């Protein structure tokens, strides 16, 4: 590790893998929600109580960010697989785009969700 100078591209490559792992856990929560919705009002109210709590909302916010970041980083990797974006300035632009875009899309999704009444 002493040979390499850490770059944003290297760090986000690791974050891309970590968000992939986080999406597995978040998908279990999504499955819990779907099973509860199919099981009836009592089961569904338990899930809603959890997701409506501060901890539940933080987890859901983190899941949303992981999903958006992983998607944008996947697009970045796809562009690289096509053979584009390897120049230093292009690589940096794609990396910053994935980082800022993931955060911006997450905030936008939550603003829209609250605006249409999903945050009640």
Automatic annotation (TrEMBL):
Q: How does it sit in the membrane?
A: Multi-pass membrane protein
| Cofactor requirement | heme
- Cross-referenced Pfam families: Sdh_cyt (PF01127)
Subcellular location, in the record's words? Membrane
Spell out the SUPFAM superfamilies in the cross-references: Fumarate reductase respiratory complex transmembrane subunits (SSF81343)
**Keywords of the record:** Heme, Iron, Membrane, Metal-binding, Transmembrane, Transmembrane helix
Q: Does the keyword Signal apply?
A: no
Record field: transmembrane: 21-44, 50-72, 93-116
What is this protein's function per UniProt? Membrane-anchoring subunit of succinate dehydrogenase (SDH).
* Assembly, per entry: Part of an enzyme complex containing four subunits: a flavoprotein, an iron-sulfur protein, plus two membrane-anchoring proteins, SdhC and SdhD. The complex can form homotrimers.
NCBIfam families noted in UniProt? succ_dehyd_cytB
Give the protein family. Belongs to the cytochrome b560 family.
The name under which this protein is listed is Succinate dehydrogenase cytochrome b556 subunit
Per the UniProt entry, what species is this protein from, by scientific name? Answer: Bradyrhizobium japonicum
């Amino acid at each position: 590790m002493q040979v390499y100078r850490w770059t944003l591209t290297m760090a986000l490559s690791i974050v891309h893998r970590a968000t992939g792992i986080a999406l597995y856990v978040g998908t279990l929560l999504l499955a819990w929600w779907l099973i509860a919705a199919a099981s009836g009002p009592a089961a569904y109210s338990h899930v809603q109580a959890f997701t409506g709590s501060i901890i539940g909302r933080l987890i859901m916010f983190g899941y949303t960010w992981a999903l958006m970041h992983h998607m944008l980083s996947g697009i970045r990797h796809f562009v690289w697989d096509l053979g584009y974006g390897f120049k230093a300035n292009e690589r940096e632009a794609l990396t910053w785009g994935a980082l800022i875009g993931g955060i911006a899309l997450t905030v936008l999704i939550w603003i829209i969700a609250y605006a249409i009444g999903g945050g009640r």
